[in-house]
Amino acid sequence: MCEDEKTERRAGPIEMAVSEHVENGRRNDDKTSVTDEEVYISKLRQAIPQCCAVGAKNLLLITFGTTLGFSTILIPALQKEDSDIKVTMEELTWISSLNLFLVPIGCLASGPVSQYLGRKRTMMLANIPFVVAWLIYYYSSNPGMLLAALAITGLTGGLLEGPVITYVAEVTQPYLRGMLSATSSMAVILGIFTQMLSGSLVHWRTVALINLIYPILCFLALCLVPESPHWLAVKGRLKESEHALCWLRGWVNPSYVHNEFGALCEAIQKPTDNTGSEKEKIWQAYTNRTFYQPFFLVSAAFFISNFGGCTTLQTFAVIIFAKLNAPIDKYTATVFLGIAQLIGITICVLTIHLMGKRKLSFLSVGGTGLCFLTTAIYGYLNNADYLDGIKYSWIPTTFMIGGAFTANICLRTLPWILAGEVFPVKVRSSATGAAGMIAYIMASIANKTFLYMENSMSLPGTIFFYSMINLVGLCLLYVILPETEGRTLQEIEEHYAGIQNLKDRPRKEQKATKEKWAVENPAIVHDESTEIGVAGSAGADLPPDLVDDGRGSYEMVDILAIAKRVVYGARDASTRSSSLGLFSASRKTAGMIAWPFIHSSSLSAFHATP
């Protein structure tokens, strides 16, 4: 039996279907000629369906946001003497944190469930427990019923973390991904704000009844949008995947998404392993730098966000404003806090694509730290009777609201955006679920310990602690945060594989041509220790951004990126070792030596990606 027949027998049904679909697409592409007028689709037309899909998903996050914001109005209501449900101090701390404690448990099931059922179906089913929880809230008569409702919302909130983060990353194009990912946090903040506003107007039981509207609307909206094309392709449902991609790119014909869909199909192909080592390969994906470095980054961003005071300020806003002697009603101040959060997250959505994540995150983290530091200093001076507490009470109120504003410019949004971008495709579902688990463990600890910290350290001391977390976090993010805005998921994965460095945004004039070249010359990156297939042949074209600048030199970073593909694509160790000499060349020399070496003499040592 020939080797080709053996290989065909080992191939799984998904791989065979993908290969057949891609080959059919190539034959059709050779026979079909489409003019620029026929394939041109406006940016607006491409953006509208992606916004619709993300908007339907955001209704689920608004629903989840209402469950987080409900504690903000429930806790002060239960503290009133005329409350119909009597609670102790210990029960109050659990009411503020139980749902967050249980979110990680839901996160454990988030990745596997969304991988099995699909992103869309998992999000649709998540609406049912939310309806049950709001009914329990409305009819509750003791603390146990309140805690049961909190437990349901916490578990369901964890279950939806994986699909909502992965869905937005898989249905959007790179130039829209950052902005539309930021709307996820905007939706949660909007849900929280509805509770602050409603709680200042009506009783908390009435608010619970009103909240039934959101999950019902979300379920209906999700019925109208497609499933993730990535998930459908992985499951071998290629026709449905292509149809979903056509819907998401502006309700276009398959010929328009041919290149993107072909790259997607080729990316999900992987050799079938019948030697019993498949589990080892899956485990290896979690030990590669392409997983643990992004996981550290996302965890650090979550730590700064939660222990930097953002979570506790939101949950205990009414209590904090009361202790700061706010010059306005504490509930009114909380509404202003919610408005500041909404304005901040809106600015994030509108500016993240223009400024990039690095600059915006530095502004957000630094601004939040300075606002909290100013409030802490005021608190110390006021407690020492250096200030007239009544005359200057507007200072801490203003700066706490300002801290909420600056935090939502990027700090609270950043880790959730990164969680959908920085993980490799093999582990993306489970990694996003694990990241969400870490986030809510931190948030629950922050909420659970706030009242105890405030009693032992005083409110100014607690706020000072939060300010230091933000300022130290600013230094950490400066070192470890890459600029992922405007980058493809492949480029981000290559950054963590050590192939390129994403400290700056791509230049505008290079952006379109680089993405086009990447589609035509795909490279599947696994890890530095794995051979990387370099698409192309002896006649391959130079990447469009590597052009002569008129002085006989090329861009050093990009030429090194290509050189690294050569080195790690070499078949034998001797070829790989000799290729490493490229990296010692100067900037001018690299442009003249590296590319001819790549272009001709070493191509015989490569294997092409299928």
Automatic annotation (TrEMBL):
Superkingdom of source: Eukaryota
Major facilitator superfamily (MFS) profile domain location: 53-485
Transmembrane segment boundaries: 59-78, 98-117, 124-140, 146-168, 180-198, 204-225, 295-321, 333-355, 362-381, 393-419, 431-451, 463-481
Keywords: Membrane, Transmembrane, Transmembrane helix
InterPro entries: MFS_dom, MFS_sugar_transport-like, MFS_trans_sf, MFS_Trehalose_Transporter, Sugar_transporter_CS
GO MF, one annotated term: transmembrane transporter activity
PROSITE patterns: MFS, SUGAR_TRANSPORT_2
Topology within the bilayer: Multi-pass membrane protein
Record-given protein name: TRET1 protein
Organism this protein belongs to: Acromyrmex heyeri
Gene (name only): Tret1_11
